[in-house]
Design brief:
The chain is an alpha+beta fold. The chain folds into 2 domains: about 35 residues, no CATH class; about 150 residues, Chorismate lyase-like (Chorismate lyase), CATH 3.40.1410. Helices cover about 15% and strands about 40% of the residues. It has 4 helices and 10 strands. It has a 6-stranded antiparallel β-sheet with strand order 4-5-6-9-8-7. A two-stranded antiparallel ribbon has the order 1-2. Strands 3-10 form a two-stranded antiparallel ribbon. The chain starts with 5 loop residues before the first helix and ends in a 5-residue tail after the last strand. GO terms for molecular function: DNA binding; DNA-binding transcription factor activity.
Length: about 200
Amino acid sequence: MYDVSSITVVRALNDLAKDGYIVRKQGKGTFVSRARKHKLVEFSDVEIFETKDDKVTVLSIERGNKLSYLEKLGLRGDQFYYKIERVRETGGVVYIYHTSYIPEQYINANYPILEYYSSIYNRFKLDYHIHMNDEHFEEINEIAFPTPEHAASILGVDEQFPTVLQTKTTKLESTGQVLAYSETYKRADYYKIKFTSCDRNH
């Protein structure tokens, strides 16, 4: 037998439960958890069509300073952002409606044409040497039902047609500055995701 106190054992069990290694069920006992909490997994969108047929169109680029979005971007009341609206389509069907909010300092106000911002990630990379895919982000996906009137109109669907709302905030890893906040509506019939557990040595 191991020479440890009951207090030490209780603390150890509490730590194991906290980390997701064991699960306690009242009146039944303690069991080994089937899966750890916060286990590292890979998440990816699964496109259900040929991406080579994808087309992005920039609908508008507007300068603004609405308080609710200034707060999401960590900006002061006297600062500005640019709102960029885009749609993505395939086979003539618009299936994604993007709205991105970018701090003014990261926008080239002298852009030649709207399509200059068809890829915001490319603009950050080419204009500011920032690789957005390498920066910290938080994304939330939720079902939007009914779909807001404006988004439904752009997607060409009825408001009772379900969509997936993806909200995403990307921050500069080194300083925590918000680089972009986006709201994306995607047709539910074009939405598919995959989760894969990572190898131990991944």
